[in-house]
Amino acid sequence: xxxxxxTEQFITFCLECYRxxxxxxGYKVLELFEKNEVFDFLEQSYEVLHTQGKRYILYExxxxxxxxxxx
Length: 71
What we know:
Layout: H1 6-22, H2 26-35, H3 38-44, H4 46-49, H5 54-68
């Protein structure tokens, strides 16, 4: 059995929420997050973001991706 850290659990939660919101395949979100360095952003922002609601977290992810302009 694989045990994820709290940060890994949070990142997985974020990926799944984004996937559901935009009705995307998981691999598409994975590619988008990798291309735009969203995983690094989420890891670095974990302490603040994990205390927020889903809507706010998704907003922050969207703002981060839009600021990268690598979509």
